[in-house]
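Quick review question:
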């Protein structure tokens, strides 16, 4: 039954998408052509650097793709606006009606101007006539490799832009960076909780075995996240702690990313979506993580769970709607989504 479903037409919520990783290769190519012609870049064409159809980036090759390529290509206000508008157009074309994009602020030219430029691009996109069905909010990320001062500045940016489009704070970055560095972030997350009680907190959680120790995950859970992403390498003790949280915790699961990056074994059938999606103490939502890198739009993630876990059309609609309860975008937005999402 569900194989006949139109997953693109299904109104969907995307809560785990990184801005820079969501840029399509064609869009990166367009940026490159303009800069290349103007003599502004010595980088290689993105279509050579990241050939179409190549999606097997793993944790070793994934992070350098950004630090040594994408961040050097998208490095000015023009390319930031251009790529943000392109990302929004791609999500709306895939039937996404609510999006929380996340990004680690960069000095373009200042961190504040970087965030403002993205919010301006979102406002510009939403001002189209007729207005697109997509509404977009921003989550600011602390990279786990950041020194504490940089991480604190991300919290300051949350304070400044809270109520103006920024709805959450995230912890991301290379899971190979040591757990010991995370302790310095505890005051930041507790200050976020006390000074901005409605700011959502989401954390990349147990992405790799090195970042899946009880020591690290106990620390992350002590920050009282509303949502956690990936949730792969965890002990039974942590699994139980997640279920015992007094508030239902949201799990942002990214199937194609995990399979293509070899973060799990057993292919799609072996993905821990199968373990979690019916657990009543949690709320599972599907995310693309980096559709520009892994090439699977959100509609395809729904098609994959229907195919590999046998969800019926009703179960697909229920799964999509469950995400409403864990968005960071506020009650008015939840009301809008309850009206437009399929029952
Ligand atoms: Zn992620």
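Suggested answer, residue by residue:
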């Amino acid at each position: 039954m569900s194989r006949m479903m139109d997953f693109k037409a299904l109104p969907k919520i995307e809560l785990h998408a990184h801005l820079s990783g969501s840029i399509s290769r064609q869009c990166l190519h367009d940026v490159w052509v303009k800069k290349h012609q103007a003599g502004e870049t010595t980088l290689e064409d993105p279509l050579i650097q990241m050939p179409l159809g190549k999606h097997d980036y793993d944790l070793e090759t994934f992070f350098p793709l950004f630090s040594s390529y994408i961040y050097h290509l998208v490095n000015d206000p023009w390319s930031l606006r251009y790529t943000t508008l392109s990302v929004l157009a791609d999500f709306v074309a895939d039937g996404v009606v609510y999006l929380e994009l996340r990004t680690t602020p960069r000095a373009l030219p200042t961190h504040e101007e970087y965030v403002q430029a993205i919010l301006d691009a979102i406002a510009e996109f939403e001002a189209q006539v007729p207005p697109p069905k997509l509404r977009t909010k921003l989550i600011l990320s602390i990279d786990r490799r950041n020194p504490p001062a940089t991480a604190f500045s991300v919290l300051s940016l949350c304070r400044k832009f809270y109520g103006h489009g920024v709805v959450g704070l995230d912890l991301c970055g290379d899971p190979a960076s040591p757990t010991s560095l995370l302790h310095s972030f505890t005051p930041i997350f507790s200050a976020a909780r006390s000074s901005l009680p409605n700011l959502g907190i989401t954390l990349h959680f147990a992405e790799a075995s090195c970042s899946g120790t009880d020591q690290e995950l106990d620390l992350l859970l002590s920050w009282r996240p509303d949502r956690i992403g990936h949730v792969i390498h965890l002990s039974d003790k942590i699994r139980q702690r997640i279920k015992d949280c007094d508030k239902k915790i949201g799990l942002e699961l990214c199937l194609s990313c995990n399979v293509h990056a070899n973060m799990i074994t057993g292919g799609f059938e072996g993905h821990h979506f199968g373990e979690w999606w019916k657990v009543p103490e949690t709320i599972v939502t599907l995310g693309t993580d980096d559709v520009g890198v892994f090439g699977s739009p959100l509609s395809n993630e729904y098609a994959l769970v229907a195919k590999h876990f046998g969800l019926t059309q009703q179960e697909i609609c229920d799964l999509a709607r469950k995400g409403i309860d864990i968005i960071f975008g506020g009650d008015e937005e939840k009301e809008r989504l309850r009206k437009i999402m399929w029952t």
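Why it works: The first strand starts at residue 12 and ends at 18. The CA atoms of residues 319 and 336 lie 17 Å apart.
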